[in-house]
NAD(+) diphosphatase
Amino acid sequence: MTEPLAFTGHDLDRDDHARADPAQLAQLRARDDARLLALDGVMPRFENGALLTTNLSGTGENAELVYLGLRQGAPLFVAVPPQGDMRQAVTMRETMMALMQLPSAELALFGGARSIADWHARHRFCAKCGGNTQIAKGGWQRSCLSCEAQHFPRVDPVAIMLVEHEGALLVGRGRGWPERSYSALAGFLEPGESIEEGVKREVWEEVGVRVRDVSYIASQPWPFPSQLMIGCHSFAEGRDLLIDETEIEDARWFTRDEVADAMANPTDAHSFLPPPRTAIAHYLLNHWLENMA
């Protein structure tokens, strides 16, 4: 069976109704059981397979805290760090390996907290007038102190797609990736296009292949910094490639047996090295082997 997607399956009650009530938020912060998720910047602190939390003492009334919700009935907050972090996960291999020690609920909790804390750290000024902004609605909004514009946490949609042709899959590799590493093609959706249109455009732009019959498989929040990966499957009209080397370094077709070899031997496969288990691309390849190939 395909494994659950990383960064999904948190156990929070988001307690949305409390966000817009300053008095209720103040009461939640004052509770003896209120906890603060411990971060180094926007990366987690954990031990023995669990995220570390502390009490709220010492944070101060004016500290920028985001109310994440209730966890096992207790209020949980995360502090906004001085700076955000725009690094991609591929540049943090040791950190990503360490994160895999966390159970799925812990990993999902961290992912959401990282995304929202990072967004606040990078949006302290108004995009409309340049004025200072302040945290609002428990951290799920920022309001401009000058023009009163309201800003909300952003999630960037990314289409990530399997491209199939007569039992083979097309996968690619980005610049700077480890040798022999390949993954599903992907790209940001643009304004004014559907998911299906985005899949077709990205595949055509990156490798010069026309695809049809785009279907949805699954989605994954990806907190580096804050994306929603929308996993899809499509069928190619042919196998001729015209690779845009400004987008990707290489792309190749692999047979079902070669994909199965990669997934069964992730560190020493003869065909290629697959994406890590934390990535939705890993899920998509397993899904294809189990259900579509």
About this structure: The first strand starts at residue 35 and ends at 37. Residues 156-291 form a domain with the Nucleoside Triphosphate Pyrophosphohydrolase fold (CATH 3.90.79.10). The radius of gyration is 21 Å.
